[in-house]
């Protein structure tokens, strides 16, 4: 009835003529028009009452709610459009000059020939088309512009400093940083110097070997009497731009092939005081080859192992220390026999790397229960 009553005056007049209404009888067109007018009048009066009773904060009445819903729908549509545009902007190929060092006769890129069809990856980069495939996780290049659980990088042993920005998800491995893999001279020099400090006429306080991590290996809390240790510490800090003011150190000795290191977090992951002065862990391995192992803190089945050969330098960032536990894997019985009783030294340095890049989405620190008693 309401729909029929919204006809224009010309249509209503035609209905009146066609009806052949007798005098004194209200034509059906008039009934419909009158009903429509009354309906519209009721709606206008109802809306006026709502408007007069509304307060500045009364946005929940029917008229305001309808308007708000329309605005929200429009904003959502604009956001969806902008999201596609932003995704395309972030993932689009940068307009740069071709590589001048390429041979002159390199054929043109077939994707850039006029009229060439666009693939799913090209369309997805523009914010169009299908992003997923039967055996493809995502065709959109922007889907890869996210933080990883861990980023593995390899540094150059010949460089004076690490030449890339450091991120908190990074693990950096630098093979043969201090010496060739088969040159064990630094390993034995360190043992000789520590022995001299521990047994000499002027024995240095705190330089003795002590059992650590419930007997898993040995440490020296004060190895500063070793000149080689001091040289190694300085070079490690210089390579990663770590201020000497913030440095903490550890001298670990895996005396033979049976020693190892259980999984753990370094204390900066949960100790607020340490976290102020430490955003990375740096270490160097001398002697027998072992595996630096990482165990994901929330997934015990996720493990990553890195070979630690003689002379290898390693680094991992703040968020790696929070998201992962780390340790040094034990060797099997046969592997211990193959090592012929050879040990391993790891010198550890904790500090503030000035070249670190902060990113959104870093994990919070782990719960802290106070210092160990």
Architecture overview:
- This protein is an alpha+beta fold.
- Among the domains are: 110-144, no CATH class; 151-357, Jelly Rolls (Sandwich).
- The protein has helices at residues 9-19, 28-53, 62-91, 120-125, 185-199, 227-240, 272-277, 318-323, 333-338; strands spanning 151-154, 166-167, 170-174, 209-212, 217-220, 248-254, 261-264, 280-287, 290-296, 303-308, 313-317, 324-328, 344-351, 356-357.
- The strands form three sheets. It has an eight-stranded mixed β-sheet.
- Helix 1 runs antiparallel to helix 2.
- The longest helix has 30 residues, at 62-91.
- The termini are far apart.
- Residues 29-38, 75-89 have a biased composition (Basic and acidic residues).
- Residues 1-114 are annotated as: Disordered.
- This is Fe2OG dioxygenase domain-containing protein.
- It comes from Porphyridium purpureum (Red alga).
Give a short summary of the structure.
The chain is α+β, with helices and mostly antiparallel strands and 373 residues long. Helix content is 32%, strand content 19%. It comes from Porphyridium purpureum (Red alga).
List the helices and strands and how they pair.
Layout: H1 9-19, H2 28-53, H3 62-91, H4 120-125, E1 151-154, E2 166-167, E3 170-174, H5 185-199, E4 209-212, E5 217-220, H6 227-240, E6 248-254, E7 261-264, H7 272-277, E8 280-287, E9 290-296, E10 303-308, E11 313-317, H8 318-323, E12 324-328, H9 333-338, E13 344-351, E14 356-357
Parallel strand pairs: 1-3, 2-14
Antiparallel strand pairs: 3-11, 4-5, 5-6, 6-13, 7-12, 8-11, 8-13, 9-10, 9-12
Helix pairs in contact: 1-2
């Amino acid at each position: 009835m309401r729909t029929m009553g919204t006809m224009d005056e010309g249509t209503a007049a035609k209905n009146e003529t066609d009806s052949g209404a007798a005098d004194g009888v209200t034509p059906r067109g008039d009934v419909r028009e009158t009903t429509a007018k009354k309906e519209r009048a009721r709606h206008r009066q109802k809306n006026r009452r709502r408007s007069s009773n509304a307060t500045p904060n009364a946005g929940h009445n029917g008229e305001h709610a309808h308007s708000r819903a329309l605005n929200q729908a429009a904003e959502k549509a604009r956001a969806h459009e902008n999201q596609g545009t932003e995704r395309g902007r972030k993932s689009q190929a940068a307009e740069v000059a071709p590589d001048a060092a390429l041979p002159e006769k390199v054929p043109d890129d077939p994707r850039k020939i006029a009229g060439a069809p666009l693939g799913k990856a090209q369309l997805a980069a523009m914010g169009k088309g299908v992003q997923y495939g039967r055996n493809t996780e995502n065709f959109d290049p922007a889907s890869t512009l996210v933080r990883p659980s861990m980023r593995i990088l390899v540094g150059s042993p010949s460089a004076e400093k690490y030449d890339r920005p450091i991120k908190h998800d990074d693990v950096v491995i630098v093979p043969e940083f201090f010496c060739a893999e088969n040159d064990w001279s630094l390993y034995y020099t360190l043992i000789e110097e520590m022995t001299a400090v521990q047994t000499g006429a002027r024995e240095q306080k705190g330089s003795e070997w002590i059992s650590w991590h419930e007997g898993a290996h040995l440490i020296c809390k004060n190895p500063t009497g070793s000149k080689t240790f001091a040289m190694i510490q300085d070079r490690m800090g210089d390579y990663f731009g770590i201020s000497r003011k913030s440095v903490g150190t550890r001298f670990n000795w895996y005396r033979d092939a049976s020693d190892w290191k259980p999984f753990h977090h370094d204390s900066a992951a949960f100790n607020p005081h340490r976290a102020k002065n430490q955003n990375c862990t740096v270490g160097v391995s001398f002697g027998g080859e072992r595996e630096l192992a990482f165990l994901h803190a929330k997934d015990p089945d996720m493990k990553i192992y890195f070979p630690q050969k003689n002379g290898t330098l390693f680094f991992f960032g703040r968020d790696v220390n929070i998201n992962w536990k780390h340790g040094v894997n034990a060797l099997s019985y046969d592997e211990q026999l193959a090592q012929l009783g050879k040990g391993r030294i790891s010198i550890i340095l904790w500090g503030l790397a000035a070249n670190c890049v902060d990113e959104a989405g870093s994990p919070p620190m782990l719960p802290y229960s106070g210092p160990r008693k």
